[in-house]
């Protein structure tokens, strides 16, 4: 797809490292003008300097207007990639409402706010592309991390709603759902991530490759780990059997701690 995004205005949130940085590099290689957003200003500038992009540090929820100005008035592709992950649940320990609130805000509401700001212009001109970095947790779940699992389901649901509502008006939506990816976030998942994700973890660049292939094939659901499709089918086909299997993994994790 070399040159497929030549001159396009692309925004990638959470692009100071990991999947976001890989997406920014890949879109730049395709000829795009890329806005690199991250809470860490130094990391945003580092990636932007590397790809001759535009660093835009700050809260991913509130950058659309500034990004549009930086791209001469047009955002063609918006990658809602920034995310947070917290361990914990709702029982057997204190309820961390701060973790839940932050998870909802970053993993779901940042997508909602961005879409709200982007859609008027996209609908007026009849084109626009929204990329949501979800996670296989949005299709399945994640042991030991209730806020992450629940809000990633929410992110997927919102991406689905955007697609079914606006696809006939030229808005393309893609939900990227990898399992383990070798990033700082995977390292932060601790023993649960080691048990469930580490053995099949891929590099961030593989996620970027999968996205570009999915865009070329005009697919909504993009699975950098193809086996996730079978897991998703098993979950839908026999939920009790799937939950029993996941509970066995939960018990294995508890025994290993």
List keywords for this structure.
257 residues; alpha/beta; Rossmann fold; seven-stranded parallel sheet; 7 strands; 11% strand; SDR_fam; oxidoreductase; Dehydrogenase
What does this structure look like?
- Helix content is 52%, strand content 11%.
- With 257 residues, it is α/β, with parallel strands linked by helices.
- The chain has one domain (9-256): 3-Layer(aba) Sandwich (Rossmann fold), CATH 3.40.50.
- Strands 3-2-1-4-5-6-7 form a seven-stranded parallel β-sheet, with helices on both faces.
- Helix 1 (18-29) crosses helix 8 (204-216), helix 4 (97-125) packs parallel to helix 5 (146-166) and helix 9 (228-237) packs across helix 10 (239-256).
- It is globular, with a radius of gyration of 18 Å.
- The protein starts with 8 loop residues before the first strand and ends with a helix.
Outline the secondary-structure elements:
Blueprint: E1 9-12, H1 18-29, E2 33-36, H2 41-51, E3 54-55, H3 64-70, E4 77-80, H4 97-125, E5 128-133, H5 146-166, E6 171-176, H6 184-188, H7 190-196, H8 204-216, E7 221-222, H9 228-237, H10 239-256
Helix pairs in contact: 1-2, 1-8, 4-5, 9-10
